[in-house]
Specification:
3 domains, 379 residues, 8 helices, 14 strands, alpha+beta
Length: 379
């Protein structure tokens, strides 16, 4: 077996090994922070003479240099974002290994691009979450169908009884008026007889209206659940979707604000979306707006309309806003200012872009946030 005594030959073999290594490898001088060597994979990624400061955001680049300078033991499985050639943000998983020989120290920066892996993993998670939601919707559909059937029966029973009471009242009021002519005004249940012919019918009509509102609420909720596991895309009126979501969330909205304003544009072009997915997005954005309000005196505004040939929905709140330093990260996976991801802006953005839409967010601390969604008209 041959032994290697020629250091030049050994160096050439080591260099060849590094060039064939399947990961990106960069040797950095921690004193001067200059690049000593790049393997072939790293050259393909950065180019022959890379300026790493343009690949990374300033703050992360400074942190990376600090890690390299102070690297005296292995630093493994760290993550840094970088600017891809298409302008989008990518993610690198990297390790740092210090090497020392004859007083000379070098740090080996080994990394891999995990952008697509993260994206695929998140997409899989999103699909799985969607399947779970659909399964829950199916279960809820069975429960709500049973409950709504019982409530409908009760509403019908109440409405029929009120109709009978109203018929009886038409006869009773005649007797009351005759007695009033003979004996003068009197009081029934705290109501003066001269006013009772106006008050009682109003009370009955308000009861009938309340019954109809209960039926409408149940119908909207059933429709929301039913469409939860229907994945078809169709032409829809965005105003109808907004109204239905508001109807479902009406109680929660009243808990968070006394100033809820809605201005819906007229004769808007229909958009081509999946109704349930868009409802999920609007529910999420409205929930975010409600939870951002410090008190009930702050308002939430909803607008729909057209800008150019696109239909828009805007949800504007007077909440605490998003800190400026967090704004670049609001669409990243699992981002949340509340400690829980919920549906999340990342998934909301994915759903909106799935139907060729765009979402923009403007926010100012202690003044509020505006979220605007644009969709092309459907055909």
């Amino acid at each position: 077996m041959k032994t290697f005594q020629d250091e030049i030959l050994l160096t050439e073999i080591f260099s060849r090994f590094v060039d064939l290594y399947p990961e990106h490898v960069v040797f950095v001088d921690p004193e001067t922070l200059s690049i000593v060597y790049l393997n072939e994979k790293a050259k393909e990624f950065f180019g022959d003479n890379p300026d790493l400061s343009v690949f990374f955001q300033q703050e992360e680049y400074v942190n990376l240099l600090s890690l390299i300078q102070n690297c005296h033991k292995a630093e493994e499985k760290r993550v840094i974002t970088f600017k891809r050639f298409d302008g989008k943000k990518g993610i690198l998983l990297f390790n740092l290994y210090p090497l020392v020989n004859n007083g000379y120290r070098v740090v080996v920066f080994i990394f891999s691009d995990i952008t697509e892996k993260i994206k695929n993993k998140e997409e899989k998670r999103r699909r799985n979450a969607q399947l779970i939601i659909q399964d829950k919707f199916k279960s809820l559909d069975l429960v709500t169908s049973s409950i709504s059937h019982e409530i409908d029966n009760i509403c019908n029973f109440m409405a029929n009884n009120l109709r009978i009471v109203l018929q009886v009242w038409n006869d009773v009021i005649k007797l009351i008026k005759e007695y009033e002519k003979e004996s003068g005004e009197f009081v029934l249940g705290g109501i003066i007889s001269s006013e009772i012919d106006k008050v009682i019918p109003r009370l009955m009509m308000s009861l009938i209206e309340g019954i109809h509102r209960i039926s409408d609420k149940i119908y909207d909720f059933k429709k929301y659940i039913k469409e939860g596991f229907i994945s078809q895309v169709s032409l829809v009126d965005i105003n109808e979707i907004v109204k239905r979501v508001i109807n479902v969330l009406n109680y929660h909205i009243s808990m968070y604000t006394d100033k809820f304003n809605v201005q819906l544009g007229e004769s808007l072009p229909k958009i081509r979306v999946n109704v349930q997915k868009l409802e999920q997005v609007i529910v999420n954005l409205l929930t975010n707006a409600m939870q951002s309000l410090p008190d009930k005196k702050r308002a939430i505004h909803i607008f729909t309309g057209t800008e150019g040939d696109r239909v828009y929905l805007e949800i504007r709140d007077e909440g605490i806003g998003i800190p400026k330093k967090l704004m670049p990260h609001i669409f990243e996976p699992f981002f949340s200012t509340k400690g829980s991801s919920g549906l999340g802006l990342y998934l909301s953005k994915s759903i909106i872009e799935e139907f060729d839409g765009e979402i923009t967010i403007n926010s100012e601390e202690n003044k509020g946030t505006s979220v605007k969604i644009h969709f092309p008209p459907g055909h």
